[in-house]
Every structure is written in C-alpha cells, then in structure tokens.
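Hey, can you fold this one?
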Amino acid sequence: MKNKLTYHNDFAYQTDIGKIRIKNEDQATILTNSSGDILMIIADGMGGHNKGDYASKLAIDILSEEFKKKEKGFISIFIAKLWLQHVVSDANKFVYNTAEKTESCKGMGTTLVAVLIHKNNMVVLNVGDSRAYLYHNDKLERLSEDQSYVDYLKRSGQISESEAEKRKDKNVLLNALGIYPSISFNSRLLKYRDEPILLCSDGLFNNLKEKDIIDIIKKRMSAKETTKELINAANKNGGSDNIAVAYFIRSHHD
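Sure. Predicted structure:
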C-alpha cells in the first residue's frame, strides 16, 4: 500500500481591540477539513457605529459555514478557487442586503482576506486592505494587493513607498465587502511549498514594520506564541487600531 503523505499543522488566530478603539471590529478564523484543506480568513469591519463588527462577523460566519459543508474537500485547486469566489460573492450580497434592510446597519462593510490551501496549491483572495503574507528565506512576500487610495497612488507611481507611509489618508479604501450589490476582488492561484503564512488587518502592519514582523517570525515559536507576540508588539508601538492576526505553519512527514 502506498504511504499517504501526512501533514502536521500548527496554526493560531487572535484579535485585539488595540489601545485606541472602543470596540473590536476585527474577526479572524482558521478552519480545516478531513481532506487537509485549510481556510484562513481575516475581516476588518468598517462603518464605525454602523455595525462594522457585525459586517465582519457575518462575512466570516458565512464563509465558515460553507467551508464546513466541504468536509470531503475539493476535487482540484481550480474548483476550490471557483468555490471561494462564489462564497465571497454570496457573503457580499448578504451583507449588502442586510445593510439595505436595517437602518442601523446602513453603510456597514468589511475588508476580507482569505487563503485556501489545497495540497501544494493555494488561492489568495482579498477585498480592501487586510493582507496575506508568505514567509520565505527570511523575507515577507505580500500575496494580496491593498485596495486603498494610497496603494493605488503608489502602484501608479504618483507617490513613493516612504511618502505612502506618512499619508494621513492611508486608511481610505477603494473597495470593501457589503458596500455594493456586486463585488470585485483580487484572487490569485499560487504554488504552496509549506512556507509559513500570515494574515493580518491594518492594525498590525500600520503599527509594525515588516522588518519587525520578520524578527518575530524568525524566532520560530509556536503559531500561538508568534500570534501573541505580533499583537503585543503592535500594541507597544501605539495600537492605533483593532488588530487581527492568523498564522499558519505546515510541516509534513510520510
């Protein structure tokens, strides 16, 4: 009988209110099924008093519930990608319709970043400015693309990286889930070679430089300790927003 490749997964996720906000509107989760597929999600609610926390919870709950129905996994990474795009579109419709029907929820929305790992491939999907990173050779590679005004200016060569850092309007989003009846998102299909993966909301990367994030990951702690230390470091640097972190490490043996 052929040996089946078995994976050892270590993962953790956590959110924190930060030092300034009065409410935590960030959500995070990591789910796995019996086929070994992994779904990581972070959502950063927006709309302030307009139920940003509710929007992010709805988005995460919908994706989680749908993933639970995929207990037996996906036939291929292409099917997995179509599934994720479809579920995110459904979540968008649901959040949008809820906001339209409920006065107190008008204008609510959420960022969303999701990574779906299927064997040696992954799908990365994002709406808004929550991020996905891959850690490889002591470097962080960003897998997602911020859908923000400042990132657009940077990508189109109108401002430099250092100018972008100093901009007061860097939290102005060009896109979010639940804001419009239909949604546009970035989605990519990539090879996955067992590198650690980090998902986070802007509360982390606005308070911690990439170099500092790398220094923490380099310590090779457990996923839980890494997650905790990243949040503590962001809070020490000001904790200017809610912070969400999801961290995944995979190793395998025959």
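The CA atoms of residues 28 and 42 lie 4 Å apart. Let me know if you want another pass with a different chain boundary.
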